Amino acid sequence: MVLSRRTFSTIAGTAALGLSLGGSGEACVAAATAPTGPAPGTPAADRRRHTVGFDHYSMIVDGRRVVLWSGEMHPFRLPSPSLWRDVLHKLRAHGYNTVSVYVSWNYHSPAPGSYDFTGVRDLDLFLRTAAETGLYVTLRPGPYINAEVDAGGFPGWLTATRGRARTADPAYLRHVDEWLTAVNRIAVRHLYTRGTGTILLYQLENEYANHVTEHTGRAYMAHLYRKVRADGIDVPLFHNDKGRNGHWAPGTFDTGGERGRWLYGFDGYPSPFKRPPDWGYFGRGGPEGGSTASPRTPGFLAEFGGGWFDPWGGAEFRGKGYAESRRTRDAAYERRFYLTNLANGITLHNVYMTFGGTSWGWLPAPVVYTSYDYGAALDEARQPTAKLVPMHQIGQLLHHFPDLAKLDRAEDVSVATPGVRAYHLVNPDTGAHILVLRNDGPSDTVAAVPLGGTTLRVPVRALDARLLAAGISLGRRTLRHSTAQPMLRLAAGRQDVAVFTGRTGEVTETVLECAVRPAVTVLEGAADCAYDNGALRVRARLDGLTRIAVTGGGAAAPLLLLLADDRTSVRLWPRTTPSGPVLVYGPALLRTAVLHGPTAALTGDTTEEADLEVWAPRGVAAVAWNGTRLRTRVTRSGSLRAERRLPGAGAVRLPPLTGWRRKAENPESAADFDDSAWRTTDLARSAATTPVPAGEPVLFADDYGFHYGDVWYRGRFEGAAGARSVSLSYITGTQGLLMAWLDGRPLGTHRMPVPDAKTVRQGTWTATATFPVAPGGGSHVLSVLVRRMQHDQDGRADDTHKAGRGLVSVTFDGASPAVRWRIRGEAAPDPVRGPLNNGGLYGERQGWHLPGFRGHGWKPAYFPRSERRQGVVWYRTRFRLSVAPGTDASIGLTLMDDPARAYRVQIFLNGWNMGQYINDVGPQHTFVLPNGVLNTRGVNTLALAVLSDGTTPSGPGRVDLTLLGRAAGGVPVTPVNSPGPAH
Ligand code: GAL
């Protein structure tokens, strides 16, 4: 046995480990188990027909078991198609094999019969990019999606239609069919079954529960099923049950005689402060006692918390910001909960969200603010977080060890360690054993685990978990067991490579079956190796990358055993190529790996300087990185290593924002404003679920075709002499407000009370604003601006998205004049930026937010500002960026001011509404500006629409560009079309 003297002398406590360090020379015999064949292939639009099926263990694709490790992202929350590729690359590199996407009906449909899939809405491009990246797709086009978007994804115009939504009401189904026809026309071009794309699964509806037992509910689901099949979608369909209730399990509704192509899925968002729930092999079972609530379909978590959304700040229901979501649902949370899911027989996992993105414009539902970062593994600025570590490790594990796709519960293992729970599973075909150990206690511990006649000592941290395997194949050798978690195995050239992981500093034991003594060399790091009784034992303290070469005469190939601590594990990038697997070590991200003859052509990112090392198939002798050929040498590990380190990202300089110009608006508040072209509120009946007061006209904006953002009302009246006050009752989403003027003079601003947990649940935001008035006789005009915020979602399928928005009624104290109202909301939707980009502010209607708008007469302005005024003031400036080509800079806009100041800002970048800042509510201060919308090499236009209550001085205070991340590499970014005003 060959030992590295240097490394062994550095091991602390080797003797205490009690292992003999063996002699030398004998060979390790090839493992008894036969190699299991290549790792499952990478999905692509390969023009071949594929079969997509399942049994109760897992999905079966082309006859091979596949565990889905899926990340949720929403293309509509990243309005820059080039960056979709960036996020998809990151998912793929970090071990996800599937991307799950909602398609939001409202995002694509400005009006009935009008469906837009161009520009930032290019679903076809998204699906092509996913296929090019090598990811399966789960498509979720609703029609209802929830997802913390306006009306749960229903278009604004649908709120003004008759027909009970989410039921078999024919008036509603007519609209649904139109939507599904439009989406399915695109989806059908990307089905994996046909080899024209990678859509593997397709979801109907979303957490549909209210009408499970009612005829109208079952008829609705049957209708959706029939419609989607008629449109040519031939992959398995499913629904996501809100909890494992058995709702819409196979056989519970009419699938037209079709069997075996419907999956049961459910969602789980368990509290991080409770124990992870058991729901498969170890659970008590669903309502009917079946262990998964659907015994014939595989365990399927269609959504499982990879973070949580955050509400607006404010007094009682305070959003704390996404750092808090990431803290309470940290890497250990994900490991503890997802490994428990795996132990419970779940083989379809979808991590909601993996990249949350931005609810830009008027997309956010009332419960959330602009950022939908979600505390996800990839943050809103596309930067990796520490939460990617467990996701990467589990994803690679599931991909490289097919044993995990078919597990049965095995006899219980009793772990005599307080607080530690053990789950024992076995693959009935390969005999591989899997143990998941979970520590629900508050302290780190070392569990004593009886396995295969010995007792293993396994470190498990507080509120954490780990997975152990025994009897799995590492290629041409078999693992007897390891206390480190297996991450991957592959054959690179002549040697097998196996990677195990764990937390830095942990002592791990890895034992390989070896009939005779192997030759062992510790190439890097500290390890204690011993051969005894048919097994090679390797003990190592995890720190960086420990490398051990195991060579044995009888074995068909040498094995390179790599023990990687957490931070090292996310620098190891396995890839399959048609010529065989590749393993890259070093850079911050590997995007693509292509073998051109003897050259491994790699693309990816570095943040800091990084080493680059490549294990590749035989014959590969050269490496290129981002198009540059590197000088390499062959290492003792059998890899090619770049002689020089890859450079890190260069500096990114952001200019200060200066040169502001200012213009006040709201001419609508003036007594003599000409509103003759405005719509008269002449409707007597509303589609809203909110009652219209008897004898009053309908005032809800949706009924008059205004669905998003601000809406103006002007009401004329006479005969009000003696009036002492006017009461305006109105309804909005949370954080809505109303401001009023009488004959041009401000009456004041009323803000919706900040909702508490209860009112948020009920989704009712109605209030009455009462202002003292003394109008006297004659003719008067009331001007009212309502910031509606958004429509409620419809989670319980009771039409809550149709709650009214805008004014409800007006009454006077001391007089009863009849008010004749006119209404004005948003202009026709921006044909490029879409229906959710704009509300009805004067400046928006005039295009003040657009690049190229010529603001004659705008006055210079300097921040911080302090001005007391009720109404709207706009600020515009331009700035130039010159980020170096090849640098991916992620940039945000940060607003800061004295939190006592009552104002809010809509942020327009090159005409795109990047969100809403509420200075005295928070918690969001930084708004991500996605590259593509942001011109990183040229001029940008920024416009701020500031709405001030008039109760305090108003800002803006500080407004700065902020660097949120940078990397050398990135993806090519095509500018997002940002037209100016039509002249
Ligand atoms: C689920 C729902 C998703 C999303 C999530 C919370 O219940 O299906 O659309 O709303 O909750 O973020």
Automatic annotation (TrEMBL):
SMART domains: BetaGal_dom2 (SM01029). Residues 406-572 form the Beta-galactosidase domain. It catalyses: Hydrolysis of terminal non-reducing beta-D-galactose residues in beta-D-galactosides. InterPro entries: Betagal_dom2, Betagal_dom2_sf, BetaGal_dom3, BetaGal_dom3_sf, BetaGal_jelly_roll_dom, Galactose-bd-like_sf, GH, Gly_Hdrlase_35_cat. The lineage of its organism: Bacteria, Bacillati, Actinomycetota, Actinomycetes, Kitasatosporales. Its EC number is 3.2.1.23. Belongs to the glycosyl hydrolase 35 family. Keywords: Glycoprotein, Glycosidase, Hydrolase, Signal. It comes from Streptomyces glomeratus. This is beta-galactosidase.
